[in-house]
Amino acid sequence: MSATNPPIRTRFAPSPTGFIHLGNIRAALYPWAFARHHGGTFILRIEDTDVGRSTQEAVQVILDGMAWMGLDHDEGPFYQMQRMPRYREALRQLQDAGHVYPCYMSTAELDALRERQMAAGLKPRYDGTWRPEPGKTLPPVPAGVPPVLRFRTPLAGAVAWDDRVKGPVEFSNAELDDLVIARPDGTPTYNFCVVVDDIDMRITHVIRGDDHVNNTPRQIHIFRALGHEPPVYAHLPTVLNEQGEKLSKRNGAKSVLQYRDEGYLPDAMVNYLARLGWSHGDAEIFSREQFVQWFDLDHLGRSAAQFDGEKLKWVNAHYLRALPPQQLAEAVRPFLRRLGLHEQGVDLTGAVALLRERAHTLVEMAELCGMFYVQPQPDAALLAQHLTAPAQAALSDLRTALAALPSWDAPAIGAAMKQVLAAHQLKMPQLAMPLRLLVTGRLQTPSVDAVLALFTRDTVVQRLAANT
Ligand code: GLU
User: Fold this and answer.
1) Of the residues 12, 15, 61, which should be mutated to test ligand 1's pocket, given the most ligand atoms within 8 Å of the CB?
2) Is the pLDDT assigned to residue 4 strictly greater than 80?
3) Which of 10, 88, 349, 404 could form a disulfide with 31 if both were Cys (CB 3.0 to 4.6 A apart)?
């Protein structure tokens, strides 16, 4: 960073209206990573001016989602509703400088105007009736009608910015009508609050969803009217669901916290989401530290990214396998409890070490671990199929051999099994399948000697004794 560049300051500015999906949280991940990459500051701002839809519970969902993903903020959370005096002050500044004017057009008049324009095949827009101009006579001010305040958008010229994702973007001012920036009761509107905040919070880079592209030219005008140059903008393309529709609650997008509850690891989510719209060569799996080290705005994708649940599972499985067994056991523990399983008799660290290749999520992992923590109740039909008379005789001998083993570990158990197989002239599955069924209640387990070694010898011998 050169001495003339101000320190990087980015923000995540969610509206707390109840739900944050992967597309929303990606608009937190990138500005977070950009700030961390540059040793800058990441700010959380809660845009709660839509009083009807904003709730404290929704704020909590945002805070919990970010904390779970490890997206720590350095400043905030700032709440727009607590900044009203500041917005009013900025509004006065614009009024004093002649950038705004009162407009008394009623809703009925606006509706009629819109209808006339649409009938004439024109784009509906405010027609400047109340905009003062030299030599123009304004209509008489209606009595007792509180006006809105409109921003005087320049009539000619264009407003442009060099978007770090979209490249150069330009809007002709003729396309932008005079935006309402304060309602009749004096409360400021959305685009105005955003600009005052971005100025006060000294935001250098606005990284947000491209649903805000149409707001940007208006915001740039307000920046300049307040005497500031706008920040750098990077508008992220939409995230699509697996059917190719824009991700939203309505078409089945899940909340970020639901992924937590389904047993995804935060590091896996960060890795997966990082790639959903950004790339570093061919790298698919990288640590949080590598991501922060590599993240830049130059490699943000220009086209919409599509969510892929299978890929997310694949990434998560990778992270599950990579966790040290001790840590994996800790992560699985709450999921075991949720299944009503009690960790007893078998060491959970050993169990997850044995099973971790087989699960994509912590939920799957806990379900697999169930084989160690329930009383087996093998299916009668399966027992009839696998517990044949020759198998029963072999299992009876195996039980005796296991009871007498000098050490209780997988190699010793495996050797005992081989001896019994040879003596009874059976093939491995003929012994291993009923053995699995009797000890774990399941047919699918990792290598049976390793599974048996995790149980106590007494448990195994008792379970065999009950059936052989
Ligand atoms: N509150 C806006 C939203 O949730 C974000 C505004 C912004 O990033 O400028 O979509």
Assistant:
1) 15
2) no
3) 10
For residue range 72-108, list pLDDT tens digits in order: 999 999 999 999 999 999 999 999 999 999 999 999 9
3-class DSSP state of 256: helix
pTM exceeding the 0.90 threshold for the entire prediction: yes
Question: Which CATH number is 407's domain given?
Answer: 1.10.10.350
Domain-located, residue 13? no
Distance 405 CA to ligand 1 centre (A): 67
- For a mutational test of ligand 1's pocket, the pick from 194, 238, 249, i.e. the residue with the most ligand atoms closer than 8 A to its C-beta, is 194
Q: Do 312 and 417 reside in the same domain of the chain?
A: no
- 165, 183, 337: which is closest to 238 by C-alpha? 165
Q: Could you tell me if residue 226 is inside a domain?
A: no
Question: How far apart, in whole angstroms, are the C-alpha atoms of residue 78 and residue 217?
Answer: 24
- Do 263 and 351 belong to one domain? yes
Q: Does position 439 have pLDDT exceeding 70, yes or no?
A: yes
Q: State how far the Cα of 195 lies from the Cα of 183, in Å rounded to an integer.
A: 17
Inside any domain, residue 416: yes
Among residues 287, 309, 291, 463, which one has the least CA distance to residue 371?
463
What is the residue range of 313's domain?
256-299+307-372
**How many structural domains is the chain composed of?**
2
Confidence of residue 1 (pLDDT cuts 50, 70, 90): very low
